[in-house]
Amino acid sequence: MSDSMMTVERFIAEQERLHPDATGTFTDVLLQLSLAAKIIARSVTKAGLVDIVGASGAKNVHGETVQKLDEYADDVIVEVVGKGGSVCGIVSEESERITTIPETYEAGPYVIAIDPLDGSSNIDVNISVGTIFSIHRKRSAGRDAQDSDALQPGAEQCAAGYVHYGSSTMMVFTTGAGVHAFTLDPSIGEFLLSHRNMKIPSPGKRIYSVNEGYTNKWTSGQQRLVERFRTGTGEEGSFSARYVGSMVADFHRTMLQGGIFMYPGTADAPRGKLRMLYEVAPMAMICEQAGGLASDGRNRILDIQPRELHERVPAYIGSPGLVELAERYLLED
């Protein structure tokens, strides 16, 4: 079958056949996430027509204003995946504690971590948003998931991915054997394989992605790094700055064109803003599987042992040479 006719369901089934001991449970998690993505995509495309935009009036665990679509996307994933019989717990940006599966439903051997709608504040102005997910195998005994089941290094992820709701809806994921992207064909309601075995360009385009509004709060090393990019004083020449404010959108561009995505710490928030379990670690796994690098400025992201469900971490993700360059500047601080 040609790639243009390869659905995500068929692709996953073919991958499963390569593992004779597979039970199908892991496959079910990915298929449930793809279904949730279709439901969320349908609502995102109607955001200006129905009462689903704007703030809900609530605050999440991080003290951030919750958008109506945040709540909706979280509810959809918890409903679809939580009742699918494949997971025993869900960590979400929108919930302080891990969500366990009610006794009335079957609990499976996996734990997922999700950012239900990354960049949701952009939805009011029709800018791309996304969903990020990470899958770990349960390690503790008993039926219900414990925090320790989610608090595993990124290198232990069974799979990681994101869904980009833009001019088209794309689901990009890895199970540790390359990165593959599927584009939603709305006419048939199916995700079709559009990018097999994606590789991040290296060196790729000279693009850096960072919120320069925080320049005065950065360390001197971070300031000098961006100054090098901006002025073209390094051997790489001058760079273009591109920043959407949605990690999925900014990282997706980096995956396709190369460059570096950065969310450094600041004087006020030395650990940055992005969360390890459901933002940085999944993107780090995807990036490395595509031939890139992901660092907190000093350490490989996937080697870091998280200690809290909502732990934050600085992020430098992209083409290898640029991430290594960033590390050299940051080591000077």
Description:
The protein is of the alpha+beta class and 333 residues long. It folds into two domains: 3-195, Fructose-1,6-Bisphosphatase, Chain A, domain 1 (2-Layer Sandwich), CATH 3.30.540; 207-330, D-Maltodextrin-Binding Protein, domain 2. The protein has eight helices and 15 strands. It has helices at 8-16, 25-44, 68-82, 147-150, 220-231, 247-257, 276-289, 320-330; strands at 55-59, 65-67, 87-92, 99-100, 110-118, 129-137, 159-165, 169-174, 179-185, 190-195, 207-209, 240-241, 260-263, 293-295, 315-318. The strands form three sheets. An eight-stranded mixed sheet has the order 4-3-5-6-7-8-9-10, with helices on both faces. Strands 12-11-13-15-14 form a five-stranded mixed sheet, sandwiched between helices. The longest helix is centred in the N-terminal third of the chain and has 20 residues, at 25-44. It is globular, with a radius of gyration of 19 Å. The relative contact order is 0.13. The model has no long low-confidence stretch (mean pLDDT 90).
